[in-house]
UniProtKB/TrEMBL annotation:
Family from the record: Belongs to the PPR family. PCMP-H subfamily.
Protein name per Swiss-Prot or TrEMBL: DYW domain-containing protein
InterPro entries xref list: DYW_dom, E2_motif, E_motif, PPR_At4g14850-like_plant, PPR_rpt, TPR-like_helical_dom_sf
Organism: Rehmannia glutinosa
Gene3D superfamilies: Tetratricopeptide repeat domain
NCBIfam families assigned to the protein according to its UniProt record, in alphabetical order: PPR (TIGR00756)
Domain DYW: 796-888
Repeat among keywords: yes
Matching Pfam families: DYW_deaminase (PF14432), E_motif (PF20431), Eplus_motif (PF20430), PPR (PF01535), PPR_2 (PF13041), PPR_3 (PF13812)
Amino acid sequence: MHDNSIPLHDGAVANILRACTGAKVDFHFVEQIHAKIIRFGFCTSPHFCNPLIDFYLKNEFVDSAIQTFKSMGTGDSVTWVAMISGLSQNCREVEAILLYREMRKLGVFPTPYVFSSIISACTKIDFFDLGEQLHALIIKWGFSSELFVCNSLVSLYSRCGNLTFADLIFSEMQCRDKVTYNTLISGFAMRGLTEKSVQLFEKMQSESLKPDGVTVASLFGTCASMGDLHKGMQLHSYAIKAGMCSDIIIEGSLLNLYVKCSDVKTAHKFFLDTQTHNVVLWNVMLVAYGQMGELLDSFHIYSQMQIEGLQPNQHTYPSILRTCTSVGALDLGEQVHTQVIKTGFQPNVYVCSVLIDMYAKHGKLETALKIFRRLNEDDIVSWTAMISGYTQHDMFSEALKLFEEMQERGIRSDNIGLASIVSACAGIQALSQGRQIHSQSIVSGYSSDISIGNALVCLYARCGCVMEAHLLFEKINPRDNVSWNGLISGFAQSGMSEEALKVFSQMIQAGEEANMFTYGSAVSAAANLTKKNLGKQIHARTIKTGYDSETEVCNVLLTLYAKCGCLNDARRVFVDIPQKNEISWNAMITGYSQHGYGRQAIELFEDMKRLQMMPNHITFVGVLTACSHVGLVEEGISYFKSMSEQHGLVPKQEHYACVVDVLGRAGQVCRARSFVESMPIKPDAMVWRTLLSACTVHKNREIGEVAAKLLLELEPKDSATYVLMSNMYAVTGKWDYRDRARQLMRDRGVKKEPGRSWIEVRNSFHAFFVGDRLHPLADEIHQYLEDLNERVGAIGYVQDRSSLWNDLELGQKDPTAYIHSEKLAVAFGLLSLPNVIPLHVMKNLRVCNDCHNWMKSVSKVVDRTIIVRDAYRFHHFQNGICSCKDYW
DNA sequence: CTAGGGTTAG
């Protein structure tokens, strides 16, 4: 036609261009036609130009299309649709939307074609609100039963997560096609509603619609998230028979299937067999090695893809960064971060959320916050990553503050977000806030969510709500060992150790598998109750199950033995820890300290520094206590100074109290006083109590009165305050003042906590009060005590009656009625236990002076080590002397 | 002239 100079005919041009669109025709050929159209003056004619625009847009010549469109004037409705859908298909969705606005302004009526295109554009860039507004217009214009329009609406609601609505539109459609099914199938699959997705696939087949490549690709996704390799492989065969496997998207979804079903071998083989230059395949392999924790292989993939000319994209970075996060390779993660910046992916939400998570998880919360604040998007994952980062680093109030900010901004949290904020509440025992979030989670439809359920169980247990914790625990179905651990650790941490151990034994009986968290909590509960034998049994279990090499478990075992007074066992655990961390060192130092082994504690601290371990606040409490035990005054002061000068630590009240103890024990009461007066923070009750007890030992009434006065102001309800005060007056001979202190206590209605001692004999605990005769062996115990008193009297022990607390005790006619509980416990222990093992006695208050002297003598006459844990410290009585060197 | 699919984060 061209050669014979036959004039242009619109139908012919349209047909030629349509033919060009599908075939790979040289652009210049089309340009020649375009030139002819212009030359013959048809450049405003929709008949000629619409096919031209369509050709340009389908072949990515967007600018040529826009140019053609601009020269046309208004065009017809087909022109607008071609432009709008074409722009949308070329990732220029915003321009498509703007063009739609212009079209409406010019009064051009929208057609179903326009609506399906524009809804699709909105869906692609998450303009869901606009999409919903357009839905209203669709109803108004009467297009709501058009197949293509409905398909685009199903897609819109699927993508924005409103599957209920998508399903509703689907069910109200009079006729559906493959696209309708495919759209909803992938919608369900993406939201993890795998069962619904499979059901729909079956329904589709019952309506004789043959699955195509799109269906299969979506279903591979469904199988992948269900972990159903078998069904996935059946589909794979189907895809091979149907000849779909060369499809680039099928390839990606198939590889993903094998990776998610943990068949990395098949996946890798498949990956090597693929021929396409497809970045998705590399990204999926990155996920494969990441989920196995193979950092080296991940980085090999990451660099190899770049060598082969593929650039990392917004999917690549999150995968590699997540692997860096989970294996703890922060340094490599930071390098990837620089590459993110260089390649311009920093504004991407996905990339940012992983960066936030990485920095937050590794304690770099300020860096995480910077990225988070710069992101400036209402992205729930980033908020959650930030919140849980705070929670993981015990910054619970920061977590709660951020959560409040999030709610003020109107961002709705999902199950993962709610679970992490509940954990934050558990961390600071914010019970009422936790309850509010509990109800919020029910309202949001998460009442059967296991992550929230587990977090709530932990919250209620930590807040001591035994009933609620158990009720919630019962409701979780199916339970996992996180549920059990939450209950056990919650009770253990809220001091309900008995309850924790009860649940632990139920867990074992239920055949549930305990892990390091379970053992950690159970051992810590046993340690709090100083249940040495039970602790040993749990220790045996950890050895059997191999958890005895976990540092965290070892640290608690060490503490258990130290708290039970078995320092040798504690030491053995410490020596055998394969990878000691700061907590291990702290626990051992503290253990030595509490038992009065100051030298060993200080030596260990020096070792710790040599090994470049970072001492923290707890380390220094141990070290300073050790100094006070050994009487290392100047060393103690210099260690105290080193806290801020060398280790960047700000001393807390307990450190000041330790220094006061160091000075007080050495008899430097005046120096202790001026030390307290020079404190940069307001001294708390602990500091004054320490000073007061130093004054009691060294009979310094002047300073003692100052300390007592301030202590009375700070803790007027604490009986220990009055006891200390009264003792201070007693030792300085001010009997009238002592009586006044006691009177004051009575007037204020403060009751002395009854003294109580207990001892473990053959797996059961025997507890005693003052003058107790309730024990079945009471007669034998008292008889034995009389013998014992004769024997200690023979080596010079004389009872010190000033230690007896009240007139009642002093005025008792029956002298056996005021025998202190620790004496009874010791007598019972000596009667009941083989005479080689040391006695371990626990007491809830401080041991009194008389009992202390008595124990020293007893340890000598019966030749036994007696270890007493009172409210303050351990006393090891051996051969007539005590490890506390008579200062406590 | 219109609609649907794969890989990434807490």
